Each structure stands twice: as C-alpha cells, then as structure tokens.
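My main concern about presentation is that the manuscript never shows what a single data entry looks like. For the editor and my fellow referees, an illustration may be useful. For illustration, here is how one protein appears when written out as sequence plus structure tokens:

***
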Amino acid sequence: DRRLELSAQSERARAGLARWAPGTASRPLPEALPGMPPPPPIVRLREALESHPQQQMVARMQGVADADTVLAREAAKPDRSVEVGYFARSAGRSDMLMFQMAFELPLFAEKKQNRLIESKLRLGERVREQRADQLRQLRAELEAAYAEWRVAGDRMRNVATTILPDARARLDAQLAAHGAGTAPLFLVFEARRQLIEARTQEMALRVAQAKARV
C-alpha cells in the first residue's frame, strides 16, 4: 500500500513538472539522490536576493513609474516658445521682420496637472512597496529553506551516528538471543521493524534536505 501511495505521488509530481518542463517530465530517475554541495553562506544568499528575477522585474516596473512621474511634472510646467520670421515682399513694399513670444499658462492645475502628478507618485510608491514586500517574502523563504536544510543535516548525522547503529546492534542482539533460545521471535521482528523505521527516517531526511537545498 505504501508503494502504491508513493507511486501515485510520483505520477502527480511528473504531471506537475510537465507543466513547466514538458520534455523532462518523462525522464527516468536514478535510484539515489544526486549529490549536491552545501549552499553558499546565508549572508551571500541574502545579498543575492537583490538580483532575484522577481526583484528585477519589479525594479523595471518602478523605473517606468518614476519615468512617468518625471514626464507628468514636465507636462505641468508652462510651455514657452519663441518665433522669428522674415518676409521679403515684392511690389515695392518693405520687407517685414516678425518676432513672436508665446507663454502657455496651465489653468486649473489642481484639477488636472496636479492630480495627474499625484496619481503617478502614488503608483510609484505602490510599486516600491510591492518591491519591498516581495523582498521580505523572498528573505523569509530563504531563511526557512536554509534552516530546514541545516536541521535536516543535523538530524541525518544523529540518525547515522546514533539511531541506526543502536537499531542494528539491537537487532543483532535479538537474533543472537533467539538463536540461543532465550528470546521469542516477536522481539526479533520488533527490532527489525525499528531498524527499518530508522532507515526510512534517514531517507526521508535526505529527501527533505535535498528539497530545501533546491
């Protein structure tokens, strides 16, 4: 029943992988987990979050919002223009020189230009808050994954150095006692079950550490 359950989990995982990488979902998997080196120090990983793809995407959005704000401010400034013209006229008429200046005065700025600037400023502030919130979320996910990787490693070392040797020694002792006729068979089965549980625990910790590392 446990094998069937794990097989179903494997099929669901492959189906989920096919959504993102269709060509890799059907590849055969090795019997053992791949060996992965320890992650970089947590300080370096925190610094690298600034260049995370999600952060870069929001940074581009922030750049667009800031540019829109600058354009809105420029559009609110009065426009000035100077025009110079020279006209050569015929029929004995004198030539004409023209000089013209124009000033554009924005009226009702509180209802039009200022509102546009405020809306652009609010949009830029919202994008900055989104970027900061996203960075906090990435940091929280990093801290959780790093802690899970570290704790799984500590537990694996404890299982390998203490729990597994004790379980093997207990099984060997029960086998010897049963062979000598001083221990019933159910104690051998119980010791074997405890050893299997310890080995299963070790494999589960390896999986948990590999997931956290990824």
The CA atoms of residues 19 and 114 lie 47 Å apart. Helices lie at 2-20, 42-48, 53-76, 113-179, 185-213.
